[in-house]
Amino acid sequence: MPEGKASFPFGFALVLLVAAGLYVATLHDALTIRTGGGEAVIAAAYEGMFLVAGLWLSLTVLLIIAGTMGAMPRAGAWAAVFLVPVSAVAALVALDACSRELRGAAFFPAALAGLISFDAIWSRLPNLRGRFPAKETTRAVWGGVFVLSALAFGIAALF
Questions:
Q1: CA-CA to 59 of 20 to 30 Å: which in 53, 83, 102, 122?
Q2: CA 127 to chain CA mean position, Å
C-alpha cells in the first residue's frame, strides 16, 4: 500500500452495519409495541431494553474506534463519556413512552442514535472531517444529544 493512502475501515464498517440493524430493530420495536397483560408488557420491556443496550453498545464501539483510529476532538470525547449513557437511558424512557401510546416518542431514540453515529462517522473519515469544522460539529452533535435527551425525559414525565 502506498504511503499516505488510507485503507478502507472494514472493522468500523462492520460495527456500523450491526448498529444499523439494531437501529432498525429498535425503531420497529418502538413503533409496534402492543399493550397487553402483565407478561406481555414485561416481555416488551425486556425486548426494548436489550435492543437499546445492543444499539448503544455498538454506538460506543463506533465512538471508541473513531476516537482511536480517527481524529475525535477532546471535547467530543469527554461529552461522549457523559452523554452516551444519558442518551441510552433517554432512549429507554422514550420506548416506555411509546408503550403508553405516545408513538411520536420514537423520534428520540432515532435522532439520538443518528447524531451519535454521525459523530463517529465524522470522526473516523478524514474526507468528512474536512467538510465540517471540528468545533462547530462537536458542539452541534453533543449539544443536540443533550437537548434531545432532556426533552425525552421531560416528555415522558408529562405523559
A1: 102
A2: 22
What single-letter DSSP state applies at residue 100? T
Which residue in 111, 117, 137, 84 sits closest to 13, CA to CA? Answer: 117
SS3 104: helix
In the block, which residue shows the cell 431514540? Answer: 109
Q: What is the pTM of this model?
A: 0.91
DSSP string, 141-153: HHHHHHHHHHHHH
Confidence at residue 1, expressed as pLDDT on a 0 to 100 scale: 44
Burial 133-146 (b: 16+ CB within 10 A, else e): eeeebbeebbebbb
Encoded amino acid at 149, one letter: S
- Beta carbons of 12 and 124 less than 8 angstroms apart: yes
pLDDT at position 6: 67
CB atoms within 10 A of CB 27: 18
Q: What is the DSSP letter of 7?
A: P
- What are the C-alpha distances in Å from 145 to residues 11, 33, 36, 43, 112? 25, 24, 32, 28, 6
Longest dimension (CA), the chain: 62
